[in-house]
Every structure is written in C-alpha cells, then in structure tokens.
Amino acid sequence: MKSNNPEATLVETYFENKYEIVSGKLSEEEELYKENILDHYKNPHNKRKISHCTFNHKDFNPLCGDEITLFIKTEQGKIIDAAFEGNGCAISQASASMLTDHIKKMSLEQAKQLGPWDIFNLLGIRISHTRSKCALLCLKTLQEGIKEAKL
Question: Could you tell me if 116 and 136 are in contact, meaning their C-beta atoms sit under 8 angstroms apart?
Fold first, then answer.
C-alpha cells in the first residue's frame, strides 16, 4: 500500500526502482560497504556533544528503540561542526556517523535538500524496507532540527 506522505513515497519509490529487497549473498562491493558500516558503528565519527551548538534535536524510532541526538553548529549559513549521541542498531548509528561527516562544510540549504537516497548512497548497500527507518533516523532528526531552529 502506497503512502500519501511524500517522504514515505520517496522511500517506497527508491526501493521499487533502485533495489529489490532480496535475500542472498552480498556482492564483493556490498561486503566492503558492510565492513564500512560496521567500522562506523564500532568506531563512530563525531560521537560527542557540541557544547555551544546552534541547535540540537533528539528523535527516536519507536519501533526498535533507536535514538539519536544531533548537535549542529553553523556560521554564516554553513554547517561548521556536526556531532551526535545515541544508542541503537548498527545501521542507525553508522548512518548518523556518516551523515555528520557528510554535512560538515555544507550549507544549510544543501542540508535541507538531502533525501533518503543520500543516506542510502552513504551506506552503499541494500537496506531492507523494515530497516529503512533505522537508516533514515539521522536524516529525520536533522531535518526536524533545522525546522525547529527556523534556519
């Protein structure tokens, strides 16, 4: 069943058009990305608080209990630092680690334009539909934080 929510529709379209949700052996390239995800989970980048941040926002996935707090520091419309704290599965924590690396030096306007496909591309492997909420929690947290901060 299709959703009327545009963001959900983007995710559904992504899965229908880009990746079939399949089980089976990962390709060699996907194995490398899987290792990268595990490395970001075990050795997360930017996992800390920013004491004098422009804004922070906390969100969670009620289905599995994953939670993330993002801390963003901006200057003249650019993200100059990004960090996170949180607990959860490897996918949610690794995607937060990767996103905080990715958005540093990005303009707020560019950050507002990020979509689900950007997170899936950072992760680099097929993410099942049920795990997509884990992967996208960091993006949801960022976008809601920007809206609340009215930036």
Answer: yes
DSSP 120: H
pTM for this one? 0.80
Name 118's Cβ contacts closer than 8 Å, sequence gap at least 6.
102, 139
For residue 73, the cross-strand partners are: 81
- Using one digit for the tens of pLDDT, what is the confidence trace for 51-85? 999 999 999 999 889 999 999 999 999 999 999 99
Q: Is 78 helix (H, G, I), strand (E, B) or coil?
A: strand
Pick from 2, 30, 11: which is nearest to 117 by CA?
11
Cα–Cα distance for residue pair 105/151, rounded to 1 Å: 16
Angle among Cα 59, 140, 83 to the nearest 5 degrees reads 70
Domains of the chain and CATH, by start? 23-149 (3.90.1010.10)
